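Format notes (please read before filing issues)

Several people have asked whether sequences and structure tokens are stored in separate files. They are not. Every record keeps both together, in the order shown below: the sequence lines, then the token lines. Line labels are part of the format and must not be stripped during preprocessing.
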Amino acid sequence: MGPYQVDTGHRSFVRAENAGRRKFRQGQTPSAELAAVVANDQDVVTFERVLGGLVRHARLDRGAPAQALKPVMRRQPRSDMDCTQSDVYDVTAALRGDEPRELHFTVRLKYRSVSPAGETLKARLAEAIDINETHAQPFLLAVPTDSTGALDAAVLVQRISVLDGHGVTPAPVDLAQALLPVSPTADEKVLGAAGRLGSDAGQRVARWLREGGLPHWDCGPPDWSDAHSHRRPTEWLSHVRPEPAPGPLLLPAAATRIAPRQDHGLSDPMVPFWLAQLPHHRDVVLARD
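Then the structure lines:
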């Protein structure tokens, strides 16, 4: 199943909650992983575990994680021109009830041009803060099941089923991010289970899986063989045709991630979470970012 802890049904979800309570009471907290993300924002696996864990624990005893994470909050992440995984620090601060730092990602990036991947990450972090404040959702759908950032289709269907059972409507950015990296499947059991989901979100997932998800399309210039002649690499590698992405209708948060844009190219350093957002379409990431 990969390096992620996955909640696949109601019973396992309850067990995970109880385990979370025990961990905080025993002092075994995710503080080390949070510290690792703040210090090094390149580790996608650790970031996803931290973000998913913060949402799960927000509906438990908030006082326990707030106290356990206090030592980590002494070191703020470095400032960056883009949104980075280390900005999960601000989600933690909100969970603890701390005053927002001066370089909170929503303030720091308010008037900056952020990379497409950074825009998606910014939306995910802001939504996680809102979920934690409102207790609207017990866990995140989009936490991957593979270190590449991919999400197993069967796991996504099971997660939606759990939310349906609790009468919970998934947060829109979380649902959008869950759809983009989901692995295509031809497994009739998975497709059948998706088709039986009764919620709007469940039916969207079912259609997405049935239609094959986000299809591949040509990201290269028409004159690719001569495109790099006397041109900077940024110009010929940062190219996406302006047509809409083919395939199933995208949620707004996902459409933003795919839409053509050429003002951010390879002049920006590629970071792992860019690829993890679209693990099955890395060519699009290269052309898009």
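For reference, the curators noted about this record: The chain is about 50% helix and 0% strand. The chain has three domains: 10-134, 153-210, 224-288.
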